[in-house]
Amino acid sequence: MAAFRPLFIFKISENTYRTIHESGTACLGSSQDRTGSPEGVIDIKVLFIGDIVGSTGRKALKASLPELKSKYNPHIIIANGENAASGRGITSAIANEFFNWGIHGITLGNHTWDNKDIFEFIDDEPRMIRPANFPPGTPGRGYTVIKANGKQLAIVNLQGRTFLPAIDCPFRTADDIVETLRQKHKCILVDFHAEATSEKIAMGWHLEGRASMVVGTHTHVQSNDDTILPGGTAYITDTGMVGSKEGILGMQRDAVMYKFKTQLPARFQVDEGKWQFHAVCVDMDEETGKARKIQKIRMYEDEWRMD
Ligand code: FE2
After folding, report:
1. Which helix H or strand E contains 297, and what residues bound it?
2. With pLDDT > 70 as the criterion, what percentage of the chain qualifies?
3. pTM recorded for the entire structure
4. What is the reported pLDDT for 38?
5. What is the rounded distance in angstroms from the CA atom of residue 6 to the CA atom of residue 26?
6. Cα(306) to centroid of ligand 1, in Å?
7. So which residues are the catalytic ones?
8. Distance from the CA of 105 to the center of ligand 1, in angstroms?
9. How many angstroms separate the alpha carbon of residue 130 from the centre of ligand 1?
10. What domains, with CATH codes, occur in the chain?
11. Residues 217-250: b if buried by 16+ CB within 10 A, e if exposed
């Protein structure tokens, strides 16, 4: 059981002890102990970073990337940047900053159009994708292929329709795009930006065995259901966010609480407190596109914790 290191052993009765394992890693196979690459298998390692929220999230990203690169050695790094500019949308300057820090591809979501600046550059930036199930004719692209460090990864962005605007069907869009991509690419990442856990889990199973990894974004709270589905698809309902730890989903608490309590409009602003950082690292077989390991990453400012 090399992947699950025991952290604490509790005595729960005179002769019974319970071991609590570090739970950041799920591996393909029933034994969950395949941490190394079988001989001859070529791996590609992908770091996927959840929603980066405002200046606090950007500060966390800049501070964390060197350590993450050193510990995980990812070939390709993808991040969700739809909240990067003051919590709403992304600008050209911020996107370029991310690329300069070593992010290879950026996914978006329901805040894609919140900065008008995006219309000036999204068509010309092949490393950035917005949800593919936006209406036909929408600027930008819903999928792309990222090439870095001698590896290739196709990335797809989709948005859910439950508790979000009624856009085109993400499941049928996924079918069309993934089947097209699979003709040329084995390794496929899908960022499913959605609100409902049920819709996200459904997408994981929908693409099981067809996508290498299906990772959720948008709800900002890292879920504890990271797994490798039987067909070799790494899955997590939500990757979690990068931004203020003591705000509410990255925004200042007072305004959010005021709105909940009064139902009156409130102006949400990015909280500038200490940060939290969430991501997943997925190891996949480059020849088959099947995921072999998914590891949750969670860190806090001044309190480094890497499972
Ligand atoms: Fe979102």
Report:
1. strand 291-300
2. 86
3. 0.88
4. 61
5. 15
6. 25
7. 111
8. 17
9. 11
10. 7-27+42-300 (3.60.21.10)
11. bbbbebbebbbbbeebbbbbbbbbbbbbbebbbb
